[in-house]
Amino acid sequence: MIVTDLVMPVLDGFGLVRQLRQLGYEKLPIVASSASVTEADQAESLIAGCNYFLPKPVDFEQLLACLQQYLQLTWIYEQKAEVSAPATVTEWSDLLVPPVELLNTLGRAAKIGDFGTVEAEIACLRQLDPRYAAFCDRLSEYAAEFDDQAILDWLNRPVQSAVSR
Question: Measured between alpha carbons, how far is 56 from 36 in angstroms, rounded to an integer?
């Protein structure tokens, strides 16, 4: 399977697809992807020989569905391990919570699914103050499961009773 942009230097995606089809790759699934989502571009990509058009920014679920369809994949979903219940208010009040600016940075990364940045920020927090360990441990559990919603929920817990810096 090939996923190609339509706008590229030297040879655009339309030309690439036409060449591949002429070289005998008729059965090779080719997906066009572009920020230009006009009906004309979509139609031209299909005429050139693409099997599917994927607009940018790429929707992850749509990409997975496309991969499943053209590669005849069957997704096997791992059973999600039971995540321990969120800390009780008493446990929460015993935590040292990082400053709001750091929580916002973590939240922005989690919202876009940038778990590399989430992990890096957690590591920085651990080095910044060892007393953040319990707070970071919970975040690390959620990050290891790529559970962005749990991270956001954890970051948005009420902090009025939390120990602050």
Answer: 8
Query: Residues 136, 125: contact at Cβ < 8 Å?
Result: yes
Residue pLDDT, tens place only, 65-105? 888 999 998 888 777 666 555 544 446 566 788 888 888 88
Inter-helix orientation angle 13-22/39-48, to 10°: 20
Burial class of residue 106 (count of CB atoms within 10 Å of its CB; 0-12, 13-18, 19+):
buried
Residue 78 lies in a domain: no
Please state the pTM of the whole predicted model.
Answer: 0.47
- H/E stretch holding 4 reads strand 2-5
92 burial level (CB within 10 Å; 0-12, 13-18, 19+): buried
Residues of the domain holding 130: 89-155
Q: Which long-range contacts (CB under 8 A, 24 or more apart) does 12-16 make?
A: 13/45, 13/48, 14/44, 14/45, 14/48, 15/48
Task: Give yes or no: residues 67 and 93 share one domain.
Answer: no
